[in-house]
Amino acid sequence: MQNFAFHNPTKIVFGKGTVSQLGGLVAPFGKTVLLVYGSGSIKRTGLYDEVADQLRSVGAKVVELSGIEPNPRLTSVRRGIELCRAEGVDFVLAVGGGSVLDAAKAIAAGARYDGDVWDFFMHKAKIADALPMGSVLTLSATGSEMNGNAVISNWETKQKRSFGSIHTYPRFSVLDPTLTFSVPRDQTVNGVVDIMSHVFEQYFSLTTDVPLQERLCESILLTVIENAEKALEKPDDYAARANLMLCGTMALNGGLISVGMANDWASHGIEHEISAIYDIPHGAGLSIVFPNWMRYVYESRIDRFVQYAERVWGIERGGKSDEDMALAGINATRAFFTRIGAPATLSFYDIGEEHLDVMAREAVLFGPIGSFKKLNEKDVKEILTLAL
Amino acid sequence: MQNFAFHNPTKIVFGKGTVSQLGGLVAPFGKTVLLVYGSGSIKRTGLYDEVADQLRSVGAKVVELSGIEPNPRLTSVRRGIELCRAEGVDFVLAVGGGSVLDAAKAIAAGARYDGDVWDFFMHKAKIADALPMGSVLTLSATGSEMNGNAVISNWETKQKRSFGSIHTYPRFSVLDPTLTFSVPRDQTVNGVVDIMSHVFEQYFSLTTDVPLQERLCESILLTVIENAEKALEKPDDYAARANLMLCGTMALNGGLISVGMANDWASHGIEHEISAIYDIPHGAGLSIVFPNWMRYVYESRIDRFVQYAERVWGIERGGKSDEDMALAGINATRAFFTRIGAPATLSFYDIGEEHLDVMAREAVLFGPIGSFKKLNEKDVKEILTLAL
């Protein structure tokens, strides 16, 4: 186990009907609230009215920023920052999925920074302060509700980049599983893949002597696998939706499940390059990339892949070699993704070889990526080629 | 799963040599520090000097309170509160095990309260504020390093009582596993039993549809069982000590592993009555109480005990009935405690029937205890009698 620091100050308020606590949660942070949301599905479901009532009940003045994109764009973030300055916003409230939360975090950080917010994503400046922000989550996927990370797309430069800061942890996140009942099938699937991928990025590690962390990772994977198809079959299955929501939050809650472990995150880096150019859903991109990443890297530490096959997929050793076990676990991952309807190849989105070189070059912009196996430009190109 | 709120603001700094970060961690909270510690073992190990150097390096004025007892006493807490007031203390730093941390929390809360600190333990007042406190942990056991709970003994009234508050979470806890290398064998054993008992209090629950939480609990139990004997055989086994330390913290970190679940805590209540009168180590008392509690209550929800036997102790179903499985799991628990040297009966401490009635009555002072099975005075007396 490596030395580590862990600090996650986000308060979670979880369960059916908890949006009714929103007013009291927002009130301590001031009077002027920037309400950030997406395409307007929250108006159809009635959530918008409920949130507005809560804010009104504590006398908040509401400034709105709607239309946050599924891969949230720098232009929206800049618009939000301008609103914060013009209206003297005290608090940023995100109502939506990970994209809306990420945009809200970038706005909160940018509003307290004199330079351009994109500096944070290009490692040109560090976040030293941010407006307080909070969230009402409507999608189980990114874990953004309990961490300080944000991923934003710069459509002009075709770059999709992330930051992480202690200053951009939500002060609170309201997690009501019933709000995810109306999430369409494909978004539910993408969320499941995203949650599992977050665990993979932490679980496939070269760090040894971390038996508790390994088991915490496996606990989430097993629970997601067990509940995903239940939620797909019966979208209003409260227990299944609640279990997925809790798994999504725990999978990336400031890195608790992998404290003291080297993380990888190469697959996320590769996926970001794909969706930076093609604007495909993040979870779908991960479904395409991850099994291919696994096939490319498993020899770095075959015992971890053997353990994965045994503990997560229940594959029995029998007379199988380590290699056979590892590959069986990888194949089981692919088969599960396919069974729930997640895509397997870039060609599913009509993506060919045209931009693979650009993606590979951009993926290693700040140097080789990953730690389970360090990947250079050539490695990334090979994984992308496997994914065609 | 039940609705829940979760908020754990404690920062954890974990690993070998992390005491070197102490000065920087304390500095933001002010200049006058109350240093709370126990019998003086930290002077023998050199930790005292290291802590003093760190505090000196940031120009802190140090006020000392030493001699905190293994079952920390109200008299010591009151002495600490007086010191805080007399010296204008800004920050309370606990250096030691759970007892020292608990005393420091009670001091921190009492120093910001006009009435008597014992009010908090007798449910006569709620903690509304506390001095900031932090810790350097020297023993893996109570989880006090990452929660807001404290247990204090009132030796005059023979009462051992607890409180919990968001205001008494440590602002930081420094967890260096090498500081536990010198923990004597019996204290290591008691710590192991304490950690496992904290998980039991959460795991044996009537709440259903909590598969992730169940697995998180099982993950800790499996990891403790796997590492306890390694640490006992080789007290300076870093990996084993680090794993136990992380398990201790995770087992009771504000209830993260059992969010949305009814907790029990009856066994702790019963043990507190024993050690309130006989001053035996808490972990030893739990080793005596818990298997007997299990035998008394398992029929409340036999499937949870069957799962416990299967997943934690690897007991194979074969042709066994639910009852046989449950009892096999309970027996495995007892056998493990005995194998590592934890006591099985009250008679080990020459405790007879003399005070069982008082203990049973005091245990239910505020009403029946437990939720897996609600226990009244008669039930407690029966469990204590089983433990003779």
From TrEMBL, chains A, B:
InterPro entries: ADH_Fe/GldA, ADH_Fe_C, ADH_Fe_CS, BDH-like. Residues 188-386 form the Fe-containing alcohol dehydrogenase-like C-terminal domain. Residues 9-177 form the Alcohol dehydrogenase iron-type/glycerol dehydrogenase GldA domain. SUPFAM superfamilies: Dehydroquinate synthase-like. Gene3D superfamilies: 3.40.50.1970, Dehydroquinate synthase-like - alpha domain. Keywords: Oxidoreductase. The keyword Oxidoreductase applies. This is Iron-containing alcohol dehydrogenase.
